[in-house]
Amino acid sequence: MAETKWRTDGVRVMRAVSLRAAALGTGRATAFNFSADNQKTWIGTVTLQPGAKTPAHHHGPTEAAVYVVNGRGQIRWGEQLEFTTDVGTGDFVHFAPYVPHQELNLALDEPLHLVSVRSNDEGILVDLHVASIEQPESIF
Fold first, then answer.
1. With 135 labelled, which of 6, 23, 81, 115 sits at a CA distance of 20 to 30 A?
2. pLDDT tens digits for 8-66?
3. What is the per-residue pLDDT across 55-85, written as a single tens digit (0 to 9) for each?
4. Strand, helix or coil for residue 7
5. Taking Cα atoms as reference points, which of 67, 77, 74, 71 lies closest to residue 114?
6. Can you tell me the distance from the alpha carbon of 43 to that of 26, in angstroms, rounded to the nearest whole number?
């Protein structure tokens, strides 16, 4: 089995500015197409209070994506959460199956509101006990 390279093969970010440019003329833009056999899909919301973060986790064989409704956050991913990117209002983030990740609210005075979509409705959430590194590598 080939080694997964989380730095390049686990997370994609679609910036709001790119979506606005893609939607010119038609009013529609695709953020991500799931490659899974989408017989069932789960869509919901996630709210992180100021300064809060989710535990490190993955969603098993499920593909997942989040849309930042409003707020300023950070996504960390990788075996030790060694990669990071900041996200803000209008950004989308895609997580490949099994990619270890964590969402953080960078603001100390406002919640981070996300819409989450998963390629199945099984509610798979595998908590990981990861000692994250102090200075993750910024990507994107």
1. 115
2. 878 888 888 887 777 677 666 667 665 555 467 888 888 999 999 999 999 999 999 99
3. 999 999 999 999 999 999 999 999 999 999 9
4. helix
5. 67
6. 24
How much is the pTM?
0.78
Q: Please state, in angstroms and as integers, the Cα–Cα distance from residue 32 to each residue in 57, 66, 72, 136, following that order.
A: 21, 10, 21, 25
* Residue of 73, 74, 91, 93 whose CA lies nearest to 83: 74
Pick the CATH number of 9-24+40-133 from 3.40.50.720, 3.40.1710.10, 3.40.50.620, 2.60.120.10: 2.60.120.10
Beta strands 137-138 and 83-88: pairing type?
A: parallel
Distance, C-alpha 59 to centroid of its chain = 11
